[in-house]
Amino acid sequence: MQYSPGVPGVWAFASGGRHATWLGAHCPILAADGTPRLEANGMPLERTMLVRTEDVEWTDIWNTVGLRGTASDQFALNDLFVPMDHSITREFDRECRESGPLYRMGAGTCYQVGFAGVACGIARSTLDDFVEVARNKVPRGAKGILRDNAVVQTGLAQAEVNLRAARGFVLQSMAEIWKDLVAGASITVAQRITVRMAATNAIHKAREAVDFAYNAAGATAIFEGHPLERRFRDIHTVTQQLQGQIRHFETVGAWMMGVDVDLTFV
Hints:
The protein has helices at residues 107-136, 150-182, 189-217, 227-238, 247-256; strands at residues 3-14, 22-28, 46-52, 57-59, 73-83, 87-88. With 266 residues, it is an alpha+beta fold.
């Protein structure tokens, strides 16, 4: 059996990794002199090494604003030798050995849809909790309960519409793509672009819905332990992650107009 060179390195954002049996350590491949090995197209060669959790050293780094329950800690390897058959490329169509539709979709699409789902779930529970707050809270200086305020009523309706529309765009897009995958096709660049814009849009429409509820709830939402406080922190942690970055819209728009763009995160 062939072996890869020793794998040293540190990897963070390993969500749920302490519960796993295996971990994926994504890394560049270097030549003996330390220079990056290149693909035929000149791009750096990268692979993901599969290692057992008992072979890594964990560091608790997850002291974050939100999403604290993911425990996305950091792990390190120190020149661990990994068998070549325990390494893969993330490029979904190069070494794919499974024929199912999921394996013709690509890891990037899974990440995008997954984060959109988390964001929409946070927003959904936020609006539900806000309705309960609004039914009972009398804001200081107000003459009636919060739910009777016309501005709040309008804002809630708009947040609900925007959230449902954004979620529906993701679900409709994936349903159409899934039909093609089940029929034996692989996901196209155009379909990946659609998922990228739908997922990023859903994350930010979810953030807007949470921001509305947090602001409208006033001081009620600022206390630790209140559902709105936690969800406010969680959604703003989601938007800070790669999948929630606004720059994805630039990529989508440029591609739509025929500009040669980097599709790494599409």
